[in-house]
Write a structure and sequence with these properties.
Layout (H helix, E strand, L loop, with lengths): L16 H7 L13 H11 L11 E6 L2 H29 L2 H15 L6 E8 L7 H9 L2 H14 L2 E2 L9 H8 L5 E10 L13 H4 L15
Antiparallel strand pairs: 1-2, 2-4, 3-4
Helix pairs in contact: 1-6, 2-6, 3-4, 3-7
The structure holds flavin mononucleotide.
Flavin mononucleotide binds next to loops.
Length: 226
């Protein structure tokens, strides 16, 4: 990807924030049509409006368009995903959970077509994530995932399909090798991007009153009666 003066400046995204938030969801089935570099950079620029611990801005985004690199990430995704899919499919079939089975079909579709994804963005931390003290891991991941959510919302507002996935990162060693990352840059999230084959729509989430406590954990006065 070459940033040049000739690259058109994309239009500002005008979708109302609430609409983008309510309809942003994991879109895994993507058309192979290309996505403009300028648009991808616009999304990453909006991602960079997110906070980081001490405003360190210690992030790196690898925009992958090379088919060989996408294929390498796809192999990683598949090696972790095959076991996951087999297990989840068995559980969902046993439970008669058709919604879960549809989701697993989409996960499978993404695994089968990973190398054809137009663009894959890998959000990385410039640093290593220490498991201890606990604040280190919280600050590290807390400094990258807000930017990832910004990217997902911006993609939604632009009409692009996207999903946050981590299965390709099951081995940091192999993920670093696929992406040419140095040992001290940590890949944290993979976001395949492209024009959606399906449609966006409202997501299914737990009701707010079920997850909000007032003053002390477990005090749930906002819960609606069933
Ligand atoms: C930390 C994290 C890791 C995820 N990893 C994967 C993944 O490896 N593969 C995948 O298909 N989806 C992955 N997802 C996407 C979730 O499955 C998805 O967000 C969830 O099912 C809700 O989907 P919806 O927004 O379409 O309702 C991940 C999401 C998060 C937050």
């Amino acid at each position: 990807m070459v940033e040049s003066a000739a690259m058109a400046t994309p239009q500002p995204l005008t979708m109302p924030l609430e609409e983008a938030m309510r309809t942003q969801r994991a879109i895994r089935r993507l058309k192979p049509d290309p996505v403009d570099d300028a648009l991808v950079l616009h999304l990453v620029e909006l991602a960079l409006k997110a906070p980081t611990g001490s405003n360190a801005q210690n992030w790196e985004f690898v925009v992958v368009k090379d088919r060989a690199v996408k294929a390498a990430l796809g192999r990683l995704n598949r090696s972790a995903g095959t076991l996951y899919l087999r297990l989840q499919r068995r559980l969902a079939t046993r439970a008669g959970d058709t919604r879960k089975l549809r989701l697993l079909d989409a996960v499978q579709w993404q695994a089968d077509h990973f190398a054809e994804t137009p663009v894959v963005v890998v959000a990385c931390l410039n640093g290593i994530v220490l498991p201890w003290p606990s604040i280190a891991a919280a600050s590290a991941y807390g400094s990258i995932f807000p930017s990832v959510q910004n990217l997902l919302l911006a993609a939604r507002a632009a009409g692009l399909g996207a999903a946050l996935i981590t299965l390709p990162l099951w081995s940091r060693f192999f993920a670093r090798r696929a992406l040419g990352l140095p040992w001290n840059v940590t890949p944290c999230a993979v976001i395949p991007l492209g024009w959606p084959s399906g449609r966006y729509g409202p997501t299914t989430r737990r009701p707010v009153g079920e997850v909000v406590s007032l003053d002390r954990y477990g005090n749930r006065p906002f819960r609606q009666p069933a």
